[in-house]
Amino acid sequence: MKHPLLITTLLLSSAVFASEPAKVYHAVKAEHYGEIIVAPAENPEHYYINFAGFNSGYDGQTLLYKKQKNDIGELFHFKQLGTGYINLINEGGSTLISGTYVPYQTVKLTGIANSKVTFSGYAEERKVTKLKEKYRELQGLTESKVSTIKHIENAKEVLIKKCNQPINIEIDWPQFEQAQQKTTPGMLGSYLTSLSKICEIDDDYLAAVNEISTIKLSLSKKAGTADIKLNGATLYIGLNSSVPNVFASSYDTILNIL
C-alpha cells in the first residue's frame, strides 16, 4: 500500500509538469528577428523547439529535444534527439540590456553565428498547438492512409527525377495497421528526400544511391528507434511513430551507410 503522502507528492509533481508553460525567447541583436519557442513534450525530459527568423535552414522547423545538464554545474542544454546536435544551451551568461544584466541562452545553428536569446514571455496556446502540428508535418505523419500514400509518392517522384533512376518501394502495411500506426509509413518521405539530396552531392554519391533498386519499409519493434541497413541493392528501413526527428536525422543516417 502506498503511503498517502507519497501519492500526494506524485500527484503534485504531475500537476507541476502538466502546467509547465511554453517559453518564448528572442535574439538580443537587432540584425535578425530570431525567435524560439520551447514547449514541453509528452515525455517529461523532452521539449519541442521551434525556430524562426534566424536566416537559417532551421527557420520554420519544430524539432524534438532532450533537456540535459551540462558537463559541469547545474545548468543545461537541449540535445536534438536522433542526431545529438545541441542547438540551445544555457551556460550561465548574462548580457546588458537597458542598463540591466539579463540572463541569456545561446542558439547554435549550422551555417550562422551563435545567437544570444533572452526570455521574453510565454507562448499562446494556439502557437504551441501549431508548432506541435508542424513537428508532425515534418515527421510525415499525415491524417490518413490516403494522404500518407500521396506524401510518399510525391517524395518518390522527386527522388526519381533528381537521381534519374527508378526505384521500387515495398511497404508492409499490415504490420503498421495492426500496430494502429497506419500513417507512420509517411515518415519514409524524409528518407526519400534525403536520398534525393545525396544524389546531388557529386557523381560518386549519385552512383551509390543508384545502386539501390528497392526500399523495404517495415515496423521497427523498438519504440523510438529506427532500424536502417543496406544489403546489396535493398535498403531496409524500420520505423515506428515515436522515432524522433526523421526530417533532421535521415540525411546523416543514409549518408553513413552508403
Give the gist of this structure:
By secondary structure, the protein is of the alpha+beta class. It has helices spanning 4-18, 125-139, 145-163, 173-178, 188-199, 203-210, 246-257; strands spanning 23-27, 35-40, 46-52, 62-69, 76-80, 86-89, 94-97, 100-103, 105-107, 115-122, 168-171, 214-219, 227-231, 234-239. Keywords: Signal.
Can you put this structure into words, describing what you see?
With 258 residues, this protein is of the alpha+beta class. The chain has two domains: 17-134, no CATH class; 142-257, no CATH class. It is built from seven helices and 14 strands. The protein has helices spanning 4-18, 125-139, 145-163, 173-178, 188-199, 203-210, 246-257, and strands at 23-27, 35-40, 46-52, 62-69, 76-80, 86-89, 94-97, 100-103, 105-107, 115-122, 168-171, 214-219, 227-231, 234-239. Helix 3 packs parallel to helix 5 (188-199). The longest helix is centred in the middle third of the chain and has 19 residues, at 145-163. The radius of gyration is 21 Å and the shape is elongated. The termini are far apart.
